[in-house]
Amino acid sequence: MTYYSIMSETDITDRFAEEIVSTCRTGIGDTLRSIIHFTPSESELLYLRNDLYGGDKERAMGLKMVFVNNERLGFGTHETYNRLRKEDAEPNIGDYELTIRAFSDGFVSRVIVGEQGILLTSDSLHIADFEEVAVSLRKMLAEHANE
Predict the structure, then answer these.
(1) What is the reported pTM?
(2) What is the 3-state secondary structure (H, E, C) of 32-52?
(3) InterPro entries of this UniProt entry (predicted)?
């Protein structure tokens, strides 16, 4: 496992970052490519599989910013979905839990709670496995927000 803390832009502790990495690695396994913690304005690469980008974490983060910037839009849509639920505009849809984007050679997955998000990239993904990881991540992010 390779853990990176790049400039600690999101101000999370090393302990919290390690908990996130451990949860994701345990749930997703060796197909996990990267983990990024992000807020509406900052991001931090927490994990990068060591066979990617020649180990160049700065290059990896620069390229992954395309994903991060796109997934930041989720802060707004997350609020929209929650507002619709509260207004009973979409019965039985429930709360927002996670986003999974499928590509021909991998997956980008996202969890947002409040003003924090976790972005995962992976080679393959069993939706049930990510749902379990997402439940854990949502709980961790909610607890972290209350600290």
Answers:
(1) 0.84
(2) EEEEEEECCCCEEEEEECCCC
(3) DUF7522
